[in-house]
Hints:
The chain is of the alpha/beta class. The chain contains 10 helices and 15 strands. The two termini are 48 Å apart.
Amino acid sequence: MDQLQTMQAFVTVAELRGFAPAARKLGVSPSAMTRAVAALEERLGIRLLQRTTRSVALTDAGARYFERARRIVLEVDEAQSAAQAERIEPTGRFVVSAPLVFGRLHVAKLMCAYLAKYPGVTGELMLADRMVNLIDEGIDVAVRIGHLADASMVVRKVGETRRAVVASPAYLARHKAPKTPSELAKHDIVQCTALHPTSEWSLQTPQGQHDVPFAPRFLTNSVDVALGHVARGFGMTMLLAYQVEALVHSGELEVVLPKFELPALPIQLVYATKRHLSANVRSFVEQVTTTCSWNFTRLGSRAVRATRSVPRRRGA
Length: 316
């Protein structure tokens, strides 16, 4: 036993006035209790207990040591209880990172519900389209879209999204909709550099994945600006399905070249470790997996609209 354990053994023997009842309480053998107290006495260089065949009593030095040792054992027990309570009930500062548009559309309202459920938590939502470092920037959980290469992080898939080329009905009425990726060269393209830094889109062709180059008519690093530009009838753009979902459902945008889209991208929660998971992270992951439907692969479907507004039931 270590020093704290021998101290606890002594305190328990003194309180229960016997090695056998103390051993039963701590779940060890009476001989182990005897050795623990003897080791403590040897380390201190004093006799703490007077032993007879029928009873155990404190010596004068043992009585003085007992009062101090009991306070220490009680404080350790209280500290452990407090730490376990923190694991059970979320509390304190909790930082979540998410992409700009996805965070605004979906994570922000989730954070509101989470903070309403756990009043002891102070939440912070960091929105950025760059790949943030969780450890360096003090982030508890990140929502990320796409395939991740960092094997040091825990990754939990919670949905997926398509990459869709969209245009307004007004634009498509003035220009013949492309039927193949090669026809994109004839169209006005709005390039969102936040998603596509180079002037090409990756599409699936019968020959496999192909990067289709284009000469953009308009460039912006803002998803919202690109979306607004296209919705007003200027050209077409490629964005992620959750970004265009509302305008597709309302009929303000139409999906172009759906048969040439690449496989869906995963939407994932990323956090640092599986071991000793904090109550904040554990409860947030549980809230996402039990209340959110982040599947955007059926873009334009009425069924998707219904699942977005109704929380998913546990186990469904």
